[in-house]
Amino acid sequence: MADIVIERVIDDVSMLKALADPIRMTLLDLTMGQPDRTWTARELAAQVGVLPTNVYYHLNMLERHELLQVRDTRVVNGIIEKHYGAGQYSVTFHRRAGDGGDETRELVLQAIDKVRDDIHDGLKMESMTMSPDAPDSERMMVSTGLVHIPEDQIAGFRAELIQMVTRYERASRNACRFTVMVAIYPS
User: Fold this and answer.
1) Closest CA to 93 of 164, 162, 168
2) Of 30, 76, 88, 137, which residue is most buried, by most CB within 10 angstroms?
3) For 134-153, what is the mean pLDDT?
4) Contact 184, 161 (CB under 8 A)
């Protein structure tokens, strides 16, 4: 088994295209959410709601770009069954606005839509709340703020955000899991 990369930097158009699909993004989220687990195509297909025969194309594309790893194979009824796992703990996108064009926009919008859907579902199922009286493990926070950063400190601000997220990504896999979406963009 290849080592899992701590942070995969997505910085080329071909990899953006590989991720510019909601099924592939969901597959990536599932495997990165449980990086030590392995999944069969059948298990992943059931999680994303597609037929196993339809998920192979997506798995192969993610595997080609090393976003998924084949960690084990077994022969089941004469057929080789692959067991997939995440190729990284986190993914960071580094593209200039004009690079990747539609793929970059689509990827960003998919990420925002997924967070919105997760929050909607969590509030609907009452598995999360914004109440300050709720236990920390159930409490969500959504905040938007405008900050003023001197130009010579912008890179440092970004680096501190990434460092903080990375510190908690590496924390115990038995800890409470939270999705974190950090956005910093010029206003």
Assistant:
1) 162
2) 88
3) 88
4) yes
Number of neighbouring beta carbons within 10 Å of residue 112? 12
Of the given ranges (77-86, 139-148, 157-166, 171-180), which has the lowest mean pLDDT? 171-180
CATH number at residue 68: 1.10.10.10
The percentage of residues in the chain with a pLDDT greater than 70, rounded to a whole number, is: 91
As given in the structure block, the two tokens for residue 114 are 């997924």
Task: Determine whether 58 is exposed, middle or buried from the number of CB atoms within 10 Å of its CB (0-12, 13-18, 19+).
Answer: buried
Average pLDDT over residues 22-49: 90
Q: What is the residue whose two structure tokens read 């990369």? A: 5
Range of the structural domain that residue 50 is part of: 5-90
Cβ-Cβ contacts under 8 Å for 56 (sequence gap 6 or more): 41
Report pLDDT digits (tens) over 47-72: 998 998 899 999 999 999 999 999 99
Cβ of 33: how many Cβ atoms within 10 Å?
12
Q: Tell me the CA distances in angstroms from 143 to 2, 132, 179, 186, one per residue in order.
A: 38, 14, 14, 17
Does 151 reside within a domain? no
Coil, strand or helix at 64: helix
Report which residue type is found at 34. Answer: Q
User: Number of structural domains, the chain?
Assistant: 1
Asked whether residue 137 is domain-assigned, the answer is no
